[in-house]
């Protein structure tokens, strides 16, 4: 027995020794030791796939935005810029057709030259209902894409609708004609080697660990990228992500812990910055079909009862810019007058409550994401509960997984959901999907208004920014007066990075932009 | 002995089948379709239904179970619902990482706890015994995630002795690999050092007070030899608890892998739960169950060797 046991032990040790040898080294870690310039970024969320038309979460879009490009892009300041197109599109007199001229000499990462056919193919595959792409609904206002010569395309929309230009950066890309049939959609979801025109070529993906891209040496923008390899690490634990940064295991981190952000950005060796996103709503989604939110005075009582300045300072640690309407104060469509209609005024809140169907107050369930989505709202939920109780409105906080909470809300079952949601940096998208009929989040609000629909149609068709601003001001005034939701503000995009990282800028569109960064 | 092994193997297979059914029912009872994780909350009900249909999630539960169990019995765990990756390959990739972590933590915990427990028992009521008790109380009381964060702060950030997370590949050098394992292995082991050392102590104290030990001492047998006999008997309950602990460690590894950002199988389980990837949850839990049952089977065999009476068939 003794010898048999001894032999078994030796075998066991031999088997145990196999463990680490099986844990093969990723190429980027090996190369990092040979001095190759690697830019490493750490984000909190891991993607389920890396196909831009099927990705759901915002921060992993740093991967797809490095692989794929589109006709135009939204830069880090939220401005629309030509990308694969030579210039921003010409708009037809009827405001339905956008014409793009493509840049000459651009090739895909597989060496194939970019032509107008590829652009048409990319839009057609995105819009193909059989493909069932998660982001298809974003582009359904596009009627058709037609090729007019090798380098010219026309995109015709069903209604005058310029907003779709802002959706191209995040939710789509241009890929080679016929590639989805040739390689299959799974290829795009898992290992899209050579399918984009961007600065990074897909190299490897270890789910829930990292995605690595190598430098596209034939990239059309000469001199960039400055890195040989881009590694996007997925580190969900806040403290570990910060430790990775402090120990130089990563160069840049996304979603820094709000409570520690101010302290960390002053720490030696680190730089940090935050800027308000143009589309990040911090909001209480109220269901107007369910009591007590079926009364506008009750909703307004809630809107007046919340001290957004204090909330932003103490519950969001300065990472939310207060706003009472769905327009961020830094945006061109912001209207101060509309944002001043609702203020923090408990007396006025009590007045509206008295005028409502529920003069003695009411109790309701407020869903709160248990796991932070974009920015933790649990502190804010407790603060809001305390504020509302002062005027006898009593929310019961119910913690739920974000997906379950959103399902309850979008299914029309929830009374109220406190959450952060994100749209590209233009004014209409979230208003449209939440507050107009038959959209994906229409049941979250249960609120519609023919006046709002009319204003949206006017805004879609108005190319002049000054004139559009007037329309948005009317829209914001209407939303403040009706308070279908209680808007708390716009959450910030925030990053921390090591001082040896150069040319990194925080993106108002939330997703990190790695293309121009010089690694340390 | 052979009878014992056969009985235990049959029992283990039955337990595995039972667990597989319970696991299947419980995961299927979760109200949110994995389609929501894959297609997003903006997906329409039609898209969700189509996803469920394509993945057989709209069929009766028993039919789903049968369709899942058949390939599993042939060692084919299928594909992840969310990432569509082959789960056999995923488990082959992540299991060695978790296994290495758990085996090292287990070896560390067993080695230290037997040493600590034996010393405490031999010096019962003395300063060293009290000190060991204090350490055990601390080991049991301190939450693993908190200890992990504290150690990262102290030994990775303030004193850069160890990396803050991840497992360095062995191809990058054995020293670096071992360095990257020190903190997670310690954090995973510390709770079990506390449990097993106290168990070793109490068991050994009891055995050392037995008549046959007193007799052995009285006959003038050398102390190390007496201790060896005593330990062999004292270790029977320790082996049983240690085997259970080995299984539980895979559960604790979930926290350790998350905090240290280690891409092992326990961490994959947490991700699968968050992503509603029931297929991966089932596969991972099934593999953990097999490991748990195998560890207990091994403990039974070891106990039968330590105490041959246990290996005899019941009358």
Care to describe what's here?
- By secondary structure, chain A is of the alpha+beta class.
- Chain A has 19 helices and 17 strands.
- Chain A has three domains: about 1-15 and about 275-490, Dipeptide-binding Protein, Domain 3 (Dipeptide-binding Protein, domain 3, Roll); about 40-50 and about 185-275 and about 495-500, Periplasmic binding protein-like II (D-Maltodextrin-Binding Protein, domain 2, 3-Layer(aba) Sandwich), CATH 3.40.190.10; about 70-180, Dipeptide-binding Protein, domain 1, CATH 3.90.76.10.
- Helices cover about 35% and strands about 20% of the residues of chain A.
- The N and C termini of chain A lie far apart (about 60 Å).
- The relative contact order of chain A is 0.15.
- Chain B is built from twelve helices and no strands.
- Chain B has helices at about 1-30, 35-40, 45-55, 60-75, 85-120, 125-140, 145-160, 175-210, 210-220, 225-260, 265-275, 280-305.
- In chain B, helix 7 crosses helix 8 (about 175-210), helix 10 (about 225-260) packs parallel to helix 11 and helix 11 packs antiparallel against helix 12 (about 280-305).
- The model of chain B has no long low-confidence stretch (mean pLDDT about 85).
- The interface between A and B is large, with 51 and 54 residues.
């Amino acid at each position: 027995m003794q010898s048999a046991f001894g032999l078994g032990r030796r075998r066991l040790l031999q088997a145990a020794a196999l463990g680490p040898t099986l844990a093969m080294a990723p190429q980027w870690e090996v190369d990092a030791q040979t001095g190759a310039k690697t830019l490493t970024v750490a984000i909190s969320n891991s993607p389920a796939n890396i196909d831009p038309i099927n990705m759901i979460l915002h921060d992993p879009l740093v991967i797809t935005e490095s692989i794929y490009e589109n006709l135009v892009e939204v830069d880090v300041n939220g401005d629309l810029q030509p990308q694969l197109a030579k210039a921003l599109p010409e708009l037809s007199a009827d405001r339905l057709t956008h014409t793009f001229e493509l840049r000459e000499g651009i090739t895909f990462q597989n060496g194939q030259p970019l032509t107008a056919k590829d652009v048409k193919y990319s839009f057609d595959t995105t819009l193909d209902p059989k493909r069932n792409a998660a982001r298809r609904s974003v582009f359904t206002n596009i009627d058709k894409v037609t090729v007019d010569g090798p380098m010219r395309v026309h995109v015709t929309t069903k209604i005058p609708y310029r907003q779709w230009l802002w959706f191209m950066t995040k939710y789509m890309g241009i890929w080679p004609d016929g590639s989805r049939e040739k390689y299959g959609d799974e290829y795009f979801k898992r290992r899209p080697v050579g399918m984009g025109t961007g600065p990074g070529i897909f190299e490897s993906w270890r789910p829930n660990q990292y995605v690595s891209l190598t430098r596209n040496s034939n990239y059309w923008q000469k001199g960039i990228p400055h890195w040989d390899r881009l590694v996007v690490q997925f580190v969900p634990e806040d403290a570990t992500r910060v430790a990775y940064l402090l120990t130089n295991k990563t160069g840049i981190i996304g979603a820094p812990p709000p409570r520690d952000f101010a302290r960390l950005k002053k720490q030696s060796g680190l730089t940090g910055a935050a800027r308000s996103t143009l589309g990040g709503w911090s909001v209480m989604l109220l269901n107007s079909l369910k009591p007590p939110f079926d009364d506008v005075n009750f909703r307004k009582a809630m809107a007046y009862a919340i001290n957004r300045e204090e909330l932003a300072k103490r519950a969001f640690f300065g990472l939310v810019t207060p706003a009472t309407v769905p327009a961020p104060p830094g945006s061109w469509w912001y209207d101060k007058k509309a944002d001043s209609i609702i203020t923090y005024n408990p007396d006025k809140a009590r007045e509206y409550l008295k005028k409502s169907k529920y003069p003695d107050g009411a109790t309701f369930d407020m869903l709160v994401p248990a796991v932070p989505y974009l920015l933790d709202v649990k502190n804010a939920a407790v603060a809001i509960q305390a504020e509302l109780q002062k005027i006898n409105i009593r929310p019961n906080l119910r913690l739920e997984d974000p997906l379950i909470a959103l399902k309850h809300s979008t299914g029309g079952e929830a009374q109220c959901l406190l959450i952060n949601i994100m749209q590209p940096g233009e004014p209409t998208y979230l208003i449209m999907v939440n507050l107009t009929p038959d959209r994906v989040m229409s049941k979250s609000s249960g609120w519609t208004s023919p006046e709002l629909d009319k204003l949206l149609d006017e805004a879609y068709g108005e190319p002049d920014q000054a004139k559009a601003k007037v329309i948005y001001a009317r829209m914001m005034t209407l939303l403040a007066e009706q308070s279908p939701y209680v808007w708390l503000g716009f959450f910030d995009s925030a990053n921390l990075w090591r001082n040896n990282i150069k040319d990194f800028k925080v993106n108002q569109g939330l997703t990190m932009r790695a293309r121009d960064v010089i690694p340390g | 002995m052979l009878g014992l092994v056969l009985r235990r193997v049959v029992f283990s297979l039955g337990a595995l089948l039972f667990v597989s059914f319970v696991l299947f029912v419980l995961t299927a009872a979760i109200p949110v379709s994995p389609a929501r994780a894959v297609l997003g909350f903006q997906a329409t009900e039609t898209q969700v239904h189509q996803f469920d249909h394509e993945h057989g999630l709209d069929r009766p539960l028993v039919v789903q179970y049968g369709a899942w169990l058949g390939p599993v019995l042939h060692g084919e765990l299928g594909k992840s619902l969310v990432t569509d990756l082959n789960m056999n390959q995923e488990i082959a990739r992540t299991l060695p990482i978790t296994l290495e972590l758990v085996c090292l933590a287990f070896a560390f915990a067993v080695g230290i706890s037997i040493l600590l427990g034996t010393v405490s028992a031999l010096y019962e009521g003395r300063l060293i015994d009290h000190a060991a008790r204090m350490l055990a109380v601390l080991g049991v009381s301190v939450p693993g995630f908190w200890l992990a964060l504290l150690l990262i702060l102290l030994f990775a950030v303030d004193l850069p002795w160890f990396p803050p997370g991840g497992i360095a590949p062995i191809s990058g050098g054995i020293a670096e690999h071992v360095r990257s394992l020190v903190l997670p292995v310690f954090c995973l082991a510390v709770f079990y050092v506390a449990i097993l050392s106290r168990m070793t102590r109490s068991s050994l104290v009891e055995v050392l007070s037995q008549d046959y030990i007193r007799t052995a001492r009285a006959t003038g047998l050398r102390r190390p030899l007496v201790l060896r006999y005593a330990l062999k008997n004292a270790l029977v309950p320790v082996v049983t608890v240690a085997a259970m602990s080995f299984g539980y460690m895979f559960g604790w590894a979930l926290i350790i892998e998350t905090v240290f950002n280690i891409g092992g199988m326990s961490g994959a389980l947490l991700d699968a739960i968050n992503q509603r990837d029931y297929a991966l949850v089932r596969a991972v839990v099934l593999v953990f169950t097999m490991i748990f049952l195998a560890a207990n089977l091994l403990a039974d065999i070891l106990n039968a060797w330590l105490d041959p009476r246990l290996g005899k068939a019941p009358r």
